[in-house]
């Protein structure tokens, strides 16, 4: 199974290394990635705020699973978009992500 990892921080770096050791994972792509991630995954420049661009790459790259790290993409509903198009992903829905985001209910406390 090919995997798309979205993000470029330390958390995504650790996830890329863990994915690389799985016998179930084929190719690993990461957007945007970083120099450390590039050692185990192919880093790409996909505008992850553009859900259509992410969907297009998932179809083109035969992506079976997407892991979304950054909060901005989660709050923007990328996991909802992927799920609605039959692409499995790890990340909370838009509504759940807003619980932690600056637009969530916690800002009023």
Structural description of this entry:
The chain is an alpha/beta fold and 109 residues long. It has helices at 10-20, 51-60, 71-75, 78-84, 94-97, and strands at residues 2-7, 28-32, 42-43, 63-68, 89-90. A five-stranded parallel β-sheet has the order 3-2-1-4-5, sandwiched between helices. It is globular, with a radius of gyration of 14 Å. The mean pLDDT is 92.
Order of H and E elements: EHEEHEHHEH
Helix content: 25-40%
- Please tell me what the overall shape is: globular
Strand order of the largest sheet: 3-2-1-4-5
Instruction: Give a quick account of the main beta sheet: strands, pairing sense, barrel closure.
Output: 5 strands, parallel
Q: Could you give the distance between the termini?
A: 43 Å
Residue ranges: pLDDT <50 for 5 or more in a row?
none
Number of strands: 5
| Average of per-residue pLDDT values | 92
Amount of beta strand: 15-25%
Count of alpha and pi helical runs: 5
Classification by helices and strands: alpha/beta
- Computed CA radius of gyration, to the nearest angstrom: 14 Å
Key attributes of the depicted protein:
alpha/beta, five-stranded parallel sheet, single chain
Give a quick precis of the structure.
The protein has five helices and five strands, in the order E-H-E-E-H-E-H-H-E-H. The protein is an alpha/beta fold and 109 residues long. Strands 3-2-1-4-5 form a five-stranded parallel beta sheet, sandwiched between helices.
């Amino acid at each position: 199974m090919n995997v798309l990892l979205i993000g470029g921080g330390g958390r995504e770096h650790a996830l890329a290394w863990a994915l690389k050791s799985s016998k179930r994972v084929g190719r690993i792509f990461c957007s945007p990635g970083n120099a450390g991630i590039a050692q185990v995954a192919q880093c790409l420049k996909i505008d992850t705020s553009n859900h259509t661009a992410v969907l297009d790459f998932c179809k083109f790259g035969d992506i079976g699973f997407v892991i979304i790290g950054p909060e901005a993409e989660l709050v923007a509903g990328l996991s909802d978009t992927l799920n609605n198009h039959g692409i499995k992903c790890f990340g909370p829905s838009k509504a759940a992500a807003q619980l932690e985001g600056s637009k969530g209910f916690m800002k009023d406390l």
